[in-house]
Structures are given as C-alpha cells and as structure tokens.
Amino acid sequence: MTDITLQRLEKRYGETTAVEDVSVEIDDGELLCLLGPSGSGKSTTLRMLAGLETPTEGAIRLDGEDVTDQPAYDRNTSTVFQDWALFPHKTVLENVAFGLKMRDVSKDERRERAQAMLERVQMGGYGDEDPTTLSGGQKQRVALARSLAVNPDVLLLDEPLSNLDKRLREDMQIELREIHDDLEETFVHVTHDQDEAFTLADRIGIMNEGELIQVGDPDEVYENPKNRFIEAFLGDTNFVDATVVQSPGETVAVETELGAELVLPSSSDHGLKADDELTLSLRPEILSIDRGAPGADTTSPADQRAVTDGSTTNAVTGTIANVIYRGSTVRYSVSIDGASVFAERTNASSGSLSAGDDVTLEWNSEDVLAFRADGVRVPLYNP
C-alpha cells in the first residue's frame, strides 16, 4: 500500500490553467474519488499523478518519495482508461499479461498471474478471445485485470465506467468496491457521476474550475457542503431566494420568494444582519407534502405566512402544477406564489395527489441549508 501527497499542484497550458493549487493527502489503502463536472481538472490531476503530465508547479510524493518529475514507467502505478485501450491484435490473456511482459516477468509466471486476474474479474473463460468481440462491460473487466496484474502500488481509474449502461455501471461499481476491499490497495478514481462516487469512495474530493473545493467522507460532503456549487452538483434541490428580516440570535427570520416569511434555527455566530441576501436549499427529501391546508394552529394559508412550531417547523401552501412519475418515486411540482418547488414521495406512498390539488409543504427548519450571495455556506447551526 502507498500513501500519496499532492502539494500545491498546478498545471497550465499556455494562458489556460487546468489545475490550480490542489493539495490533498491520500492514505494507504484508501479509495479516493475525484468528483466534478467536465473540465473541472480531475482527469488532469490524475494524469499528473500517473506521470503522463508534468506539473507546472507543485509536488507529488508516493510514500514520501518525490516523484514529480519521474516518467510514468518509473512509477509503480497503473491506469484504467475510459476507452479501455485494449490491443485488438492480442488475445484477452495477452492483453492482461502485457504489462508483466514489459517488466520481464517470465512467460509462465505472467500467464499464471494474468489468468488469476481474469478469474478475479469474472473473465476466466475468455483468455483466448479476441477483445474486439467483447461487450463494453467485458472490455472494462479486461482493462481492470490488466492494470491489477502488475501489482501496482496505486491504481488510477479515469472514468472507467462512463461508457457502460446504467445497470452494468451500477454492478461494476459494487465489484470495484469489493476488489478494492479485497486487495487493500490505494485507488484514486475519477468520475463525474455522483452516485458512483458515493458508492465507491472512502472519501470524495470535489473539483470545479481546476480547484479542489472540499474533501471529506461521503456523508460529510453531502450533509455539510462547503458552498452552493457543491450543494447543486451533488443532487436535485430547490434553491429559494431569501432576505434576512431579523437575526436576533436564537432564530433567523427571512422573507422568501415563496411569499412566506420563514424562521431558521441558529446556534452559531453566522454574522447575518437585516437585508442580507441568502439562497436557501430545500432538498426534496426533507419536504413532506399533504393535501389541504396546515393544521388549525397555523396561520391562514391564504396569506402564505410562515408556519412554525417551536421555531423548528416551516410550512407553505400551494397548488400542484404537474406530477411526474419516475418509477420508484413520484415528483410533484408545486406552484407557490408564482415560484415553483418540487417534492417527492416514494411510489408506494404517493396516494392520490393530482395536478390542481391544493397542498401543504412542510419541513424541519434545521434541515434547511443557507448560502450567502457569494455561494459560501452560512453556518446557521452546529449539527
């Protein structure tokens, strides 16, 4: 196993900066996913780690050894590419054994190790096959076996599942996780797929515009996103514009585009003051949706005022504009004072709500995330 240190890594191509000031430490045996949209710098970072690109600035250390200027062939790393890069003129077994041949491993040993890796990725009976006849999933398994056969200190995976269909991609995610747990080697996996990162990763590093914005356990980056970009990128949510009305300390009152004044809890020094602009994130999983008006102890739904219960619950009323059946879930788009908010129910609990129904959306105020105008998260409370 090998630990990795990236220290203030940068890569520039002329006037274009692809990676800027990336620093992270990756532990022995860890599976780190670099997650971000296209063009975020994640693949360039991986290529520098592999030795396929030379950093413009910064340092790369493997087990404490500075390998910044070492070529790829001098590093005991192996890369699985998005396009598999199999040799069409070699058999499946010869493809898997190729890296061992380049390392002067004897013919008998490389055949034995290559066959063992094919067995590990459930391709044991395909050694004599022409790789051009394989399916996409089978090609990916062969590419993975080839990279693992050389027993690398670090396995690098550059969006290796992106060419697979949804079901096969999900199956391969689980297999990759099992292989990592069995081998206990250090993996660095690049993906733009949020579900893939959450399925695979010990930790997730989120990149955007060449910068590594946040690194943490999957639950940490999801529950406590550092800024609005991360909140938007990690999943569907409702962003609601708001303005601070008052912030006495224990609660923060805000006016919103929903035509309602809402109350948010506060137990930290957030520095908010009246007239500050905020964006609230109301994730669909925190919203309950029910037909009709709120309970009798609330204010009138007609005036769209805040509904609070001990300053921990907010609710607004609206009308269902449309209903979208999504298989296991049903999504409801609700019109509220000219704005639109969506909520979801599981299909089993969807009931008989229909377009045109008047409904109440209700949520715990502690579940709301708030972001300043510059996108930085506001620490309204200490979870």
UniProtKB/TrEMBL annotation:
<dbReference type="InterPro" id="IPR027417">
    <property type="entry name" value="P-loop_NTPase"/>
</dbReference>
<protein>
    <recommendedName>
        <fullName>Molybdate/tungstate import ATP-binding protein WtpC</fullName>
        <ecNumber>7.3.2.6</ecNumber>
    </recommendedName>
</protein>
<dbReference type="GO" id="GO:1901238">
    <property type="term" value="F:ABC-type tungstate transporter activity"/>
</dbReference>
<dbReference type="Pfam" id="PF08402">
    <property type="entry name" value="TOBE_2"/>
</dbReference>
<comment type="similarity">
    <text>Belongs to the ABC transporter superfamily. Sulfate/tungstate importer (TC 3.A.1.6) family.</text>
</comment>
<dbReference type="InterPro" id="IPR013611">
    <property type="entry name" value="Transp-assoc_OB_typ2"/>
</dbReference>
<dbReference type="InterPro" id="IPR008995">
    <property type="entry name" value="Mo/tungstate-bd_C_term_dom"/>
</dbReference>
<dbReference type="GO" id="GO:0043190">
    <property type="term" value="C:ATP-binding cassette (ABC) transporter complex"/>
</dbReference>
<dbReference type="Pfam" id="PF00005">
    <property type="entry name" value="ABC_tran"/>
</dbReference>
<dbReference type="InterPro" id="IPR003439">
    <property type="entry name" value="ABC_transporter-like_ATP-bd"/>
</dbReference>
<keyword id="KW-0813">Transport</keyword>
<keyword id="KW-0547">Nucleotide-binding</keyword>
<keyword id="KW-0067">ATP-binding</keyword>
<comment type="function">
    <text>Part of the ABC transporter complex WtpABC involved in molybdate/tungstate import. Responsible for energy coupling to the transport system.</text>
</comment>
<comment type="subunit">
    <text>The complex is composed of two ATP-binding proteins (WtpC), two transmembrane proteins (WtpB) and a solute-binding protein (WtpA).</text>
</comment>
<dbReference type="GO" id="GO:0005524">
    <property type="term" value="F:ATP binding"/>
</dbReference>
<dbReference type="InterPro" id="IPR003593">
    <property type="entry name" value="AAA+_ATPase"/>
</dbReference>
<dbReference type="InterPro" id="IPR050093">
    <property type="entry name" value="ABC_SmlMolc_Importer"/>
</dbReference>
<keyword id="KW-0500">Molybdenum</keyword>
<dbReference type="InterPro" id="IPR017871">
    <property type="entry name" value="ABC_transporter-like_CS"/>
</dbReference>
<feature type="region of interest" description="Disordered">
    <location>
        <begin position="289"/>
        <end position="311"/>
    </location>
</feature>
<feature type="domain" description="ABC transporter">
    <location>
        <begin position="4"/>
        <end position="234"/>
    </location>
</feature>
<dbReference type="GO" id="GO:0016887">
    <property type="term" value="F:ATP hydrolysis activity"/>
</dbReference>
